[in-house]
Amino acid sequence: MVDANGTNTASGKSGAGGASGTSGESRAARLLAARRGATRVLARKPEEATMAERLAALAESAGSVTDFDGDPDLYGNGVVAELEAKVAGLLGAEAAAFFPTGTMAQQVALRCWAGRTGNPVVALHPLAHPEVHERDALSAVSGLRTVHVTGEPRQPTADEVHGLDEPFGTLMLELPLRDAGFLLPTWQELEALCEAARARDAVVHFDGARLWESTRHFGRPLHEIAALADSVYVSFYKTLGGLSGAALAGPLSFVEEARAWRHRYGGQVFQQFPQALAALVGLDRELPRVTEYVEHARVVARALREGFAQAGVAWARIGPEVPHTHQFRVWLPYDPDVLAEAGVAQAEETKTLLFGRWYTADTVPGLAFTEITVAAPGLEWSADDVRAAVADFVRRLPRI
């Protein structure tokens, strides 16, 4: 995860200096300005828009998804309830509850399952969101304990779930696993994982913040994917471009209990209609296009790999080689400051932004990675466009 100053709080760190001696903070400001001024990008980020622009866009589009002249919500009724019903339908669940954050939604989900199973242990991946991005909230706030299914940077296997040496109440699967490179299991592997958990008398919870992106890889609709789990969390600002917020979906009795805990955790917010409206717009406009984004991400990934080879970069890696979603990682053997400066300079000089922030992984010195997202603007890029942009980017790097 990246904070406002560009610091990666996940498995990598952004550099502080740069080839030109600029600080990380000043380069972050330059990058934001370059993003706003670029005429060619692979995806637009919400933070590129000003407050006025975001509010104007929401006002312009909200009338297409609900009665914009209706009353705003009060403590979760109205348009928030409309959104909950929409999500429950998409996921094939009995009910869904809106949460102000995904962190709160998953805290509540896992706490509810701990009470129902009688076991406070959650089995998950060490790169999963609660382990990396939530300051140990599962233990500090909810009194839960975690065990790791595997330490490898990949999705766990059914054999590993079967082989855990202590009981657990919930298996949490992040789909896709962002900090391993937006990785998904195969459909058969996912079925086997869920079956293995239930063979251990455990329930299954999907961290589906980006589940919207998984249908192309699995070859299944959302409701069929969600049906494998006992509960599912989805995000409204990841993938869909909403303002904020999340939903927790599952059996009616589970969701009713989750609403009670949501209140206790401080999530019973007076009004949330802007977030709900933005989420409905994202479901209406972005969700139908996600499969197209995933398909084109594969074109972009292949062209990047070809472009680096043609430019003579001795070692470059695209991971995964065939993206599972519309997001993937690029690894290069340079200091992140050098790569960041080259990317900002390219955007400033050519109005083409190929790469944004770069990070170095603690466990892999000498390498840096960036995350690529392909959305609507990226559909305009041909493979030749990508290769040409790579050649221009590499031209700005020192020879190694």
Automatic annotation (TrEMBL):
Biased composition (Low complexity): 1-13
MF terms (GO), sorted A to Z: lyase activity
Cofactor: pyridoxal 5'-phosphate
Keyword Lyase included in the entry's annotation: yes
Domain Aromatic amino acid beta-eliminating lyase/threonine aldolase intervals: 70-305
Keywords: Lyase, Pyridoxal phosphate
Region (Disordered): 1-27
Alphabetized InterPro entries for the sequence: ArAA_b-elim_lyase/Thr_aldolase, PyrdxlP-dep_Trfase, PyrdxlP-dep_Trfase_major, PyrdxlP-dep_Trfase_small
Claim: Lyase is one of the keywords in the record: yes
Family: Belongs to the threonine aldolase family.
Protein name in UniProt: Beta-eliminating lyase-related protein
